[in-house]
Amino acid sequence: MDDAFFVLYGDSYLRVDIGTVWAASGMGDEPLMTVFRNDGAWDKSNVVFAGDRVDLYEKGRDDAQDIGMHHIDYGLSVLRSDVVSEYIPRATVYDLADLYHALSEKGRLRGFEVSERFYEIGSPGGLADLEKHLAEDQA
Prior knowledge:
By secondary structure, the protein is of the alpha+beta class. The protein has a single domain, classed as Alpha-Beta Complex (Spore Coat Polysaccharide Biosynthesis Protein SpsA, Chain A), CATH 3.90.550.10. About 30% of the residues lie in helices and about 30% in strands. The protein has a four-stranded mixed β-sheet with strand order 1-6-3-7. Strands 2-8 form a two-stranded antiparallel sheet. It has a two-stranded antiparallel ribbon with strand order 4-5.
């Protein structure tokens, strides 16, 4: 689809085949969020994921585990410009988390589960984790 594109978090190091993610989105036909089974390990889980759908995406819930939030957004998504235009008013500052939440509530957000963890590199501790991982890969 001509108006579809990837969104990548700028503070993430990911090891995922983007061709497979693109195919899972129907070649850009449907909005898609990659997710990782986290169980609160790397950060607070924020996704209820079932099959190929994100049933709920919402950050900051105190009851995340209780309502089945075992996954976390992985940092790579597929969106379409018409979907963005539908939900986000022109010339406004907008948090993508709000878009993903709205799409999940309306059943419009596909999910694609990845098996290898992400590395958040926007902090000294996260960068140190990645450096350790890369050094172990080379050994």
